[in-house]
Specification:
This protein is mainly alpha-helical and about 350 residues long. The chain has a domain at about 210-315. It is about 65% helix and about 0% strand. The protein has a two-stranded antiparallel ribbon with strand order 1-2. Helix 1 (about 1-30) crosses helix 5 (about 80-95) and helix 6 crosses helix 12. It is elongated. The protein starts with a helix and ends in a 28-residue tail after the last helix. Residues about 265-270 and about 300-345 have low confidence and may be disordered.
Length: about 350
Amino acid sequence: MTSQLNELHDEWQKARQLHPLYSALARECVIELPPCADLETGVEAPPEDSIIQARKWFEEVDQRIQVHQLRQFLQTTSSATEEALRLLLLHHLHKADRSASDRDKVDFLLVQYFSHAAPSRLEDADVDNSYVAQNLEPVLGQVSTETPAWVKPLDELLQEAQACKSLNELLSSKILEKGRTLKATPDENYFVPSAMVAFTRFSFLMRRVFFRLMHQDLNTILDGLRELETCGVTTLDCRRAQFSAEEPVARLRMICQSWRVMFHAEYSSGQPLRMLVDLRAAVEAALLRTASSGRTTQPATPEPPRAMAAAAGAESTASADPQEFEVSVETPDWSESSSGDGSQA
């Protein structure tokens, strides 16, 4: 009886700690939560019926919260401390019945937790399974260093990803989709601790690859836009990237600077990633047409001080640690028509 009472007491204390996080997430994502009076009032020692009610409350709320909402909230709130991530992880890991949604939430939370615990200047070569297991020990306990055979293809996928030269090459390779397929089958085997360690390492290093290639693409686009401006090009046909047929080059430069900040500071959906790839293709196509037309380079116009300061600020922000993101390549195929006037490429 004493042991059962202690377990109920511990469960209630964890529920009280989690409730403010869930409430803040619901407000941020506009999710209507059912009432739970004792949790809302912060009762310290409720009857057993209240603890059972709180348990059912979390089960219902977990079904309403989607993984993309959890991801977005935790990457934009100051409440996402290492302790908060630990509580969320233990809450999902200790569930008796775990759904595919629970698996995806755990997968994301493990990467976030590891990112908090790992040094900011950690080299890729130092991120092996034993190092990841050591940092995840507070939530997974001691983990065997032997990787299950069914997750070993993750190493090959990582090598393939690290060899990619552009974001388009990475998206076209379907590497992330292959990793997700591997994670989903066989479903329950994901929760074997050594498998969770392997997937945490994979997701962490894949995220680094994505951000390296994204910033490489952004720099390529910005360099191309500057070159087009020196050739007198003022607008581009960027319908393939879901912009207009006569998109001002100056506006595209401002968008790229804002993306440089957004992709580093916040969760970003798949759509901007595809737009980034298509915008690079549009700029490179414009450069080829400009070169074939024989346009001569004009003296570059110096950037105004305010624009230079904004660019410097964006560059400074880009040095922060990257955040997790999700990729979708299912976007419309925007055909690109020929240029409409003499100033467009």
